[in-house]
């Protein structure tokens, strides 16, 4: 059949709760909008450890490679906090990124008009914000060798991680950033710490050279990562597309999420290399984690997961209209005043995960009538 293959990996904590709301939307799109998906659901993270003894099975990696797109929830469970590093739930997402070569993580931070007051920053600072952080996700200090914890002869321990970037690794992620800038506001800010790190110096040189060779129509600037963190809070709208390495991108995107009101609002897409027949592996996930502090209580904001699915429809399934329908429904629901706890004003009675998901689906139905 010509049904697209979607691999759904809910994971741990709030992952399954927010994924459930997306699957209701998928079901309706199948009935009402002719979107035919062949959905496979698998365990990852602590949920997989509990049943299979590993954070992700090789079989699930294979399914991810065969799928047209992967929709990921979140992994991480305090119950597994003390096991060996290679057995932790987080290995599931790290292996998926690495084995599918998902090197470019697109993390848009967009402020919905209705939420300008939900940010901890002043409304005038965040109103209209629409930036994109492009985070490299298969290199840098997350994967560099050597790594590990070793015991020295005198009994002292030494924990080691190594920041490594090569020319092609920098070039391919910078290319994604420049291409995105061309359809955004045509500006890229490249972020590293070239003042202390050779990998950062190389990063800056490679981005500068690529820009001169192929993207001189795009405005390029450079910023040190510590300054960038400060500038994101001081005046976030000075940015358009930010491109940076794995660790800085992780930190700066959590920071950027609070500009939008909540970590529970930010979706992401992680794209792999283009393969034969123009096919490209891609995984979609909220930037938040499993939120153990609120898991199982119907408190989580499902919008980051729902908006991640909208990105999936847009980038992997060429369904712009359905993606826009979801985003419009989310925007209208927020305009109507409905809030989960993370984005509710003090004194306002919030709704739960299910009610927020149901409201988005109902609004989608209203919009197509
Ligand atoms: P977290 O993102 O899970 O939570 C941080 C804070 O934000 C918590 O107070 C949480 O309640 C809140 N929050 C997060 N998502 C929310 C949502 N949708 N609605 C409302 N509130 C939300 O980060 P953490 O607590 O540092 O990490 C918990 C676990 O998640 C760890 O095991 C970590 O490794 C893992 N993690 C996984 C991913 C992933 O799967 N990609 C991402 C980040 C963290
Ligand atoms: C994220 C998470 C992951 C990361 C963890 C869970 C490995 O924080 O997706 O942002 O650090 O990349
Ligand atoms: Mn993170």
Automatic annotation (TrEMBL):
Catalyzed reaction equations: (2R,3S)-3-isopropylmalate + NAD(+) = 4-methyl-2-oxopentanoate + CO2 + NADH
Pathway stated in the Swiss-Prot or TrEMBL entry: Amino-acid biosynthesis; L-leucine biosynthesis; L-leucine from 3-methyl-2-oxobutanoate: step 3/4
Keyword entries, A-Z: Amino-acid biosynthesis, Branched-chain amino acid biosynthesis, Cytoplasm, Leucine biosynthesis, Magnesium, Manganese, Metal-binding, NAD, Oxidoreductase
Transmembrane segments: none
SMART domains: Iso_dh (SM01329)
Gene Ontology CC: one annotated term: cytosol
Compartments, as annotated in UniProt: Cytoplasm
Enzyme Commission number(s) from the entry: 1.1.1.85
Domain of life, source organism: Bacteria
Keyword Cytoplasm: yes
HAMAP family: LeuB_type1
NCBIfam families xrefs: leuB
Protein name in UniProt: 3-isopropylmalate dehydrogenase
Gene name per UniProt: leuB
């Amino acid at each position: 059949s010509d049904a697209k293959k979607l691999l759904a990996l809910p994971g741990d904590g709030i992952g399954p709760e927010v994924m459930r709301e997306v699957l209701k939307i998928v079901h309706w799109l199948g009935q009402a909008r002719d979107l035919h998906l062949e959905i496979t659901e698998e365990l990852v993270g602590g949920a997989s450890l509990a049943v299979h003894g590993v954070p992700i099975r090789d079989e699930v990696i294979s399914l991810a490679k065969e799928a047209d797109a992967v929709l990921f929830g979140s992994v991480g469970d305090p119950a597994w906090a003390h096991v060996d590093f290679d057995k932790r739930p987080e290995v599931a997402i790290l292996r998926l990124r690495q084995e599918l070569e998902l090197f470019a993580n697109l993390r848009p931070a967009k402020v919905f008009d209705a939420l300008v007051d939900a940010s901890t920053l002043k409304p005038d600072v965040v109103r209209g914000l629409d930036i994109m952080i492009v985070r490299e996700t298969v290199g840098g200090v997350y994967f560099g060798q050597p790594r590990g914890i070793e015991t020295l002869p005198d009994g002292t321990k030494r924990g080691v991680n190594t920041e490594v970037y090569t020319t092609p690794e920098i070039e391919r992620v910078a290319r994604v950033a420049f291409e995105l800038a061309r359809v955004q506001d045509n500006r890229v800010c490249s972020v590293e710490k070239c003042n202390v790190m050779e990998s950062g110096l190389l990063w800056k040189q490679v981005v500068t050279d690529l820009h001169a060779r192929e993207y001189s129509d795009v405005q390029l600037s450079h910023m040190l990562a510590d300054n960038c963190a400060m500038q994101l809070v001081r005046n976030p709208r000075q940015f358009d597309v930010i491109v940076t390495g794995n660790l800085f991108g992780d930190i700066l995107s959590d920071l950027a999420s609070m500009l939008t009101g909540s970590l529970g609002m930010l979706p992401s897409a992680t794209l792999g290399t283009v393969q034969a027949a123009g096919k490209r592996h891609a995984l979609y996930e909220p930037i938040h984690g499993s939120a153990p502090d609120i898991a199982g209580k119907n408190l989580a904001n499902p919008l980051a997961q729902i908006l991640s699915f909208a990105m999936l429809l847009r980038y992997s399934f060429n369904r712009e209209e359905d993606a826009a329908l979801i985003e419009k429904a989310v925007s209208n629901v927020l305009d109507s005043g409905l809030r989960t706890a993370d984005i509710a004003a003090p004194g306002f009675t919030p709704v739960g995960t299910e009610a927020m998901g149901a409201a988005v689906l109902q609004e989608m139905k209203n919009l197509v009538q």
